[in-house]
Amino acid sequence: MGGNQTSVTEFLLVGFPLSPRMQLLLFGLFSVFYAFTLLGNGVILGLISLDSKLHTPMYFFLSQLATVDIVYACNTVPQMLVNLLSPAQPISFAGCLTQTFLFLTFALTECLLLVVMSYDRYVAICLPLRYSAIMSWRVCITLAVASWTLAFLLALVHLVLLLPLPFCGPQKVNHFFCEILAVLKLACADTHLNKVMVLAGSVSVLVGPLSTVVVSYGHILWTALKIQSAEGRQKAFSTCSSHLCVVGLFYGTAMIMYVGPQHGDPQEQKKYLLLFHSLFNPMLNPLIYSLRNREVKAALRRRLEKERPS
């Protein structure tokens, strides 16, 4: 590099290079999706907080998931909406790295919480007589705190490796937010170690936890099939179906982005997959839990009846 190179102090997010009319249309559409994300997860949090029948470990973890979905969307979507209205709007270097760090923290937290939720369902169905003893409130809080803390520390490792890298241009990040691999492409130094750590981290927090979820649900399926009554089997499956849908959405897109083989233009593929991951996943999660979960629908019905004037 020359001794007279200048350091980059801000980045430009390329986002989706479309016509102004199409960008305006996407701004309106994505704004509606973002509002539904906040509203849906807010309703889930409100119901769990206000309805005493939902004060159980399962819904405690669901409230954690709803919290993650809200902050996860808030970290990336507002910047994307700003860029759709004003594509030349820069983001500061510090703001970009902060966004990268928060994205990793919230994504890793959700990944770990889904594993914890599968363990909760395993204990509830396979070890029902010991459920209260195993999933005590102390254990639940410890698992939730451990998920947030471990995710924070893993994201911090990536940030520490990213901070010393020199950035001397170009300034354009080929993404709608500061995704770590897109930012690494702009570094004026060898980023082999960073990329190895991203791959190793992806394998450890996706393949390992997903294997745990699969094993848990293998035991759940075997136990449910041995239940004599059809009503009992249906209840066992209904308590797990919502979680399985969320797991499929989250791990499916994440595995394709960071672990699966690359075809065509991987950067463009990842951009659109991350759009689904950042915008649609957090919006769909509360819909899945509310539409497929009898207890959540019953709690919503009770709350609406209570609010209705007599």
Description:
With 310 residues, this protein is mostly helical. The protein has 10 helices and 3 strands. Helix 2 (57-85) runs antiparallel to helix 3 (93-126). It is globular.
Secondary structure blueprint with pairings:
Layout: E1 10-13, H1 20-50, H2 57-85, E2 90-92, H3 93-126, H4 131-134, H5 137-162, E3 172-173, H6 180-184, H7 192-225, H8 230-258, H9 266-292, H10 294-307
Parallel strand pairs: 1-3
Antiparallel strand pairs: 1-2
The coarse silhouette is globular
Task: Give the neighbour order of strands across the main sheet.
Answer: 2-1-3
Rg calc? 21 Å
**Strand tally:** 3
Broad structural category: mainly alpha
Low-confidence segments: 1-6
The topology string of helices and strands comes to EHHEHHHEHHHHH
Q: How far apart are the first and last residues' alpha carbons, in Å?
A: 75 Å
- Beta content: under 5%
Largest sheet: 3 strands, mixed
Keywords:
10 helices, single chain, three-stranded mixed β-sheet, 3 strands, 75% helix, disordered N terminus, 310 residues, mainly alpha
Summarize the structure.
With 310 residues, this protein is mostly helical. 75% of the residues lie in helices and 3% in strands. It has helices at 20-50, 57-85, 93-126, 131-134, 137-162, 180-184, 192-225, 230-258, 266-292, 294-307, and strands at residues 10-13, 90-92, 172-173.
